[in-house]
Records
---
Amino acid sequence: MSTLQPALEKTALSPAVRRRPRTKQVTTAAHYLVLLIVSLIIAFPILFALSTSLMTPAESLSSPPHLVPSHLNFTSYHNALQAAPLGKFLLNSVIVSAVIVAGQLLTSSLSAYAFAFLRFPGRNLLFYLFLATMMIPWEVTLIPNYLTIKQLGWLSTYQGLAAPFLATAFGTFLLRQFYLQIPRDLYEAAVLDGCGHWRFFLTVVVPLSRPALGTLGVYAFLQAWNMYLWPLLITNKTGMRTVQIGISMLQNEEQLAWNLIMAGVVLVLLPTVLLLIIGQKQLVKGLLAGSVKG
Amino acid sequence: MNAVVRARRRGRELWSAGPFLAPSLLLFALFFFYPLGKTVYLSFFLTNAKGEAKSFVGWQQYAELFASPDFQHSLWTTLLFVLLTVLPGLLLALLLALLVEKPLRGMAFFRTLIISPVTVSVATASTIGLLLFNPSISLLTYGLKFFGVPDIAWLTDPFWAMISVSLVTVWMGLGFHTILLLGGLQAIPQELLESAKIDGAGYLKRLRHVVLPLLSPTLFFVLVVSVIGAFQSFGQINILTAGGPSRSTHVLVYSIYRDAFFNFQFGSASAQAIVLFAILLLLTLLQFTVVERKVHYQ
Amino acid sequence: MKKALLSGMLALSLGTASVLVGCSNSEETSADAASNGVVELTLWHAMGGGAGKGLDAIVQAFNDSHDKIKVNAVFQGSYDDEFNKYKTAQGSDTAPALMQVYDIGTRYMIDSEAAVPVQKFIDAEKYDTSDFEKNILNYYTLDGKLYSMPFNSSNPILYYNKDAFKEAGLDPNQPPKTWAEVNEDAKKLTKKTGGGQTERYGMSMAIYGWFFEQYMANQLQLYANNGNGRQGRATQAVFNNDAGVAFVDWWKQGVDSGTFGNFGRKTADTQAAFAAGKTAMFIDSTAAVRGVVDGAQGKFEVGTAELPKTDGAPGGVIIGGGSMWIMKDQPEAKQKAAWEFIKFMADPKTQAVWHTATGYFPIRTKAYDVQELKDFDAKYPQFQTAVNQLHNTKPSEATSGAVIGVFPEARATVETTIEDVLLGKKTTKDSLDGAAQKVTDALGKYNQLYAK
């Protein structure tokens, strides 16, 4: 687990590079130029959404299209918030994603422990059974799951949104690989000491596997935050819609008011963009820490 | 004697394992294995709009599927979509990761911009796509005009509709894939690169003989994740093209959704889902047996 | 029992997680139960944009004037989205008490026996419907029973840019009346740039199955057999007749000649094209008239005209739009409350306001006596076109519209077919034959489930 290299801040220049300063300067300049062009292209859709949100309705609908507004016009934000409870949508998405992340971390760290440390009859068979669920595409289970949730009376509820996603074979697999790197001696010693599985799990395994848990957490969060088909099917009340459904409803409702729609998009993007700006380092570190060594 | 002790211990560990495995197992039973069985069951029935199996039709829906040109078309469309999104997406993410990996001043800024698609979700990305690909007020079309490119019917021409949907998909995945590859790149021991450099290996040579082999586990991971993601793509298609025009973006998952929750033929949709399952199973096996052999684990 | 077992399994497996999410959001459901004597009811609708705001205003006015009833309106996306959502929610406690359903959902609503025919309430209090438009009532009446209360009714009209007409040397007060005239005018209105790019098309239509259905009626032809499913259950789609082929051929020739634009399936995209000056004429529902006129404000003058028809066609339109259904599984108090709201919506005054806010025409003639409406229509003659078109239509099985249970699927099939033809993938006749066969197959499956 010591393979995690927070190498992001690595700034030392190697002596080999320092040898030819002029070529280096040219390559560096070229590098910056490429960086600038590429990053602008990639971020363009988001920047354009921001720009459109500040236009007047007529500007956002004109042909030829405007790249930037003639003057900053913030009324579309006010109108977007009036047209749809975006704050509530965000809150719903946060709650559902948080529950799914927590659930996945809990269930998969537990099951990974059993597969990594315990020896019991049928373990391999069971592990293959787990892996098999990874190969079941979610769409295959969609219809019956929908019927189950409906039968439970969980349409348009948080539990209905989250329940089918609380266990993950992928997470189990990822964490098991990580646990296997924990020296077995630690486990033997702990068990000999009479320290039970739970204590060993809670005091040794979980703290040691924080990076892997972080990776799984980020991955699970992105998946949950992005859910579209499932919430589309099971939310019937405005107040229970997630961001994804809310924003496409807003588009559906306002069709031609592109400035308003884009204001909604920007508002909805705000939390994740802030998260990225603040936590870029942690995000990258967390993801590479889990070190997808398979 | 020893065997008895071991057997006893294993018995005890079975009891210990129970609580660790129970949550996952129960959830899997409820949300994976039971539905899988139910989907197989439903695929043999005609159902009403409430999803109740009404009349048994045996293999009829499978037979109809394989006889249906629409279904074959969906299969091809799915494969095409996977090809168009996975490989270019992977390649692009790799290039970007290499580009932002260099420790230059101000790199954090560029890095943030380049991985910014990680902040968008399928609905926001597709909504922005609707505006950029709009048939009458597209800034993209207008901008390309300056480069002498004739008007493109992004969403109303079958060829371009597929390209548009793929573009959005690749763009959405860029951020996450770049981060993963960046992580993989930075885990490569610096000493190896240094010694290759001292041996006189140029950038491309180092890339080919040191970086890529060491990065292969991450590349493989990204490949698997994005293949699964591509097969499951739904939101962008539903929002941007609704499977059209002329079924040109009618991928399998969209077809399942359409049959189930538009035409309300859960039986036929279930049969399609089972076919999708079979394809993915094959493909996953293929990935693990053929591709993973080329992966270099440390 | 099964439910209890499921819950048990889940509770067991989730442990802490279920405690976390245990805060079920019963706010909306529990509020539904009449606790303080106020009956709350949920209304689902598919009215976006200006129409949505218009409907919200009606709901607001109703709630303000009725202290014992509270209507919660929920927008559920397009008609298709809303209807499909309803089908999936049917039988759960999240289903609405009152729902706006599009015209083509009528057969399914009857077959699923989920609604109380409004005829019951009409008979019970001898509610007077004598001044309701006959053409509209025809659509929603089957077996002598009015199943749902019409609310928003529309038909398609031709919109045109008067300034572009002048620019092309055409008389802005002489819009085309026939397909041949449309072709001629479209040719003159089409504007190309030096590079051969089309800057403005003469004519456009969204690839929307509703237009196809309208043009079947316009040529007095049936969409499905058994009198459009009105004499008996339809068992066969018959739209692959000469009328269907003629209409799609006309469209195809226009596109091929480069004078008809194709802006995709969404009507909003064609509206946007018109507002941006990319097309000089287009066909769309009269419900868009308010939005289109407002959107062109300060840019050009908008004219409207009756649907251009082919030579020798009798003309006429089907009443499109939506009606209000009261759900059977709701307690009687809610059904009664829903009926109160329906009466409020059908009130001449409400209908007049609704008409001016959107372009939907009033469902009853008394609304034309309302002064505001008179003033408004004098100022905006564009709103008058659809009303004339409605009154000029002779009731018949063709113009009453088809009632088939698989209509949403049929409409989507026709749309794909039109795309296939416009893109040159298939010939018109082959393509329509294939589509009709598909719809007939779907009807067979549907009838197997629902026919008694």
Note: The first strand of chain C starts at residue 39 and ends at 45.
---
Amino acid sequence: MKTLARELLFPLIAVIAAFVVGGILILLVGDNPIDAYRLLLGSALSWPDGIGYTLFHATPLIFTGLAVLVGFRCGLFNIGVEGQLYIAAFATAWVGIELANRSSWFLIPLCFAAAILAGALWAAIPGVLKARFGSHEVINTIMLNFIAVSLVSYFTQYYYKVPGDPILQTAMIGENAHIPRLGSFIPGLPERIPLNVAFLLALLCCVLVYLFLWRTKWGYEIRATGSNPSAAEYGGISIRKQIVVAMAVSGALAGMVGINEVLGYRYRYYDGFSDNYGFTGIAVALLGRNHPLGVIFAALLFAMLQHGGIYVDGFSENVTKDIVQVLQGIIILFVAAESFFKWLVGRARPQANQLPRVRAVTQ
Amino acid sequence: MLELREITKRFGDVLANDHVNIVVKPGTIHAIVGENGAGKSTAMRIAYGFYTADSGEILVDGQVREIRSPHDAIALGIGMVHQHFMLVETMTVAENIVLGAEPGSSFALDLKSAAAQIRQLSEEFKLAVNPNEPVEHLSVGQQQRVELLKALYRHAKLLILDEPTAVLTPLEVEEFFGILRRMRAQGKTVIIITHKLSEVLAISDEVTVMRDGKVVGGVQTKDTNAAELARMMVGREVLLRVEKPDADVGRAALEVRNLSVTTATGAKRVDNISFQVRTGEIVGIAGVEGNGQTELIEALAGLVEPAQITGEIIIDGKNINAVSARARRELGISHIPEDRHRRGLLLDFNLAENSILGVHYRPPITRLAGNVFLDDGAIRRRATEIIEAFDVRPRNAALPARSLSGGNQQKLIIGREYHVNPKVLLVSQPTRGVDIGAIEFIHRQLVKLRDQGCAILLVSAELEEVTSLSDRLLVVHDGKIAGEVDPKVATLEEIGLLMTRGH
């Protein structure tokens, strides 16, 4: 209980501080921050549209937050989630188009597999490069983002676009590949809201990621590698293998964004669909303290800001939805500044092993 | 010269100093001994102004003084050399020494006169330090002398040295003690914080013993002995010499033939070494640190790329050069690494999670679905067994390994490596930074394991440890075996010569 409270403290401070600073900015542009925030949160939490859309927006963020988390737990910084989810979304759309006439029982699992495998394989590339040659995953994942985005644009433009369509998007996938919207079971939730079963899949993935990382030997090996690779190696764990496995799992989670987008929302691959989900996933994982439960809360918060921002844009005089970007930025800044806060707290209460400023030269 | 009166200091729940009284007479070498966490460093950091005491007073030359910062301490002629040196590697000796007390006017830095002054001090105390040498080119022993010069340059009359010999080789320790004696002869006062009793007896005039934040005794060094000091430190009778029966030696369990190990950058660290370790014996490896011991043990444990190894490593008659670290563990090789923080522990993991490292992937730790899931009950049982058998404190398997003292961390590692009943045990520096009470315990456990028929290869920088525990002793120098000696008859001088000269 005590550790949970401590884990929650810094994210909470970060969020509150962000709203305070954001409020000052709103005052400076000449609006009332209370009204703006009421509008922001009120519209994000209204039933059914607010809640429906907030959960819909949270779905990809949960997947990408989990993807980044798995990388972090292995000591890897997967900045390539964005590219991985594009490749995966295209792959699942491709299967949905090519095999459009097959039955749902066959097609939907195949589309799921396509998204998961495509994301895993695309992420495994920088994993293998790091394990085999020691090249840094941050550089390689960033570069693979550009390749992924261009590659799927190319295939969409030249092979899968409906001729004459002014929008860069593929043809529709077969109806048998559609996954149900939650509106079809939940009374009061209209089906036009794109919230779909991928959201439930995202929650399930949180549980699975937790079990995987903390309850299986594979997760132990990944976490040991992330915590202290030298000790992991000493304990007979192959670090190279963990790097590849963690990247693949991370990419598989990233790939599931494609399920939400293609099979549950647009029913086609729409070029440039991602609203920086992959990069926001980094913030979600950080704010969520690299824990699946934290990722859910962080994803919900960011989704609320995203959805509420649209209303702020439309209904307040001077504040635009850019305020959402500002709030997100400040939250990340404060989360990243955690060690600064710890230092402040530490200064007030000196630790027994505190040493002065000059770096120690030898052990 | 310096007197601490009724000093009390609390860190959170921990009473680090409890009404501490210490009197240090001018012109003496005063040793402060105690186990890790006894409060000796805290008391001295209070004297140096790093911490301020909650209550009590400090007297310098008979007058009560406020020491609020190291700056105040330096002004009163008190200098301190820390266990971890505070030097800027890329700067020269002179630049390091004047750092924070730069000579000359506000704009120009007068390094020349400073260098001359440093050279003079260096000659006076025979420190042999060149002021214009960059610090990164200096050996550890030389860096320590730079730290001493730093204090002397600031006109320190009293020097506080925190575990000064921890980083030195036996020969360097002798040289270092010579320097301290010269300082005493020049009228300086020295306080030396240590937990090595042989050094206390060799160098000090008076001793203050601390335990659990309190001063438990003060004696003249000439009136005491190691056994008495150890008893005061630990609070009970301590066996300093390892009692062991003769080895009951069997077949060769581990054999090394013409082994060479090269680093990734191409430097040869182990050079054509051959030896055997038989069941039921402890083979010691003595040598100055950095003469290939680390690489040898890591090569045997499977932590070096096979491409960097030539020669043969043989277990029970089979060549294991290409066998992975995990498969070597399955063959019965356990490894207690020299650096417990880097290799031995997952510091952010709790004790239970640490207790399964190396066996975490197989039953009884795993279960269900083809042994994929970790069995919490089995993990807890294993952790409890290790914690109880090896007296790891606090006895709470849910604590992170980081929160334990060095001695308890080491006991956890040893307990973990013993729990698999190893056939071959590779041990490096088993008692580094460990309290006397725990050292005795660890030594007894090693002998017990030997008597159960384990083949033990022991590397230690502590000559006394490696000679008293080993049945056979190999001395290494520059990656080669400089000689094998019988630890029962060889003198420390003989071994020391092999270590430094290599023949």
Note: DSSP finds 18 helices and 22 strands in chain B.
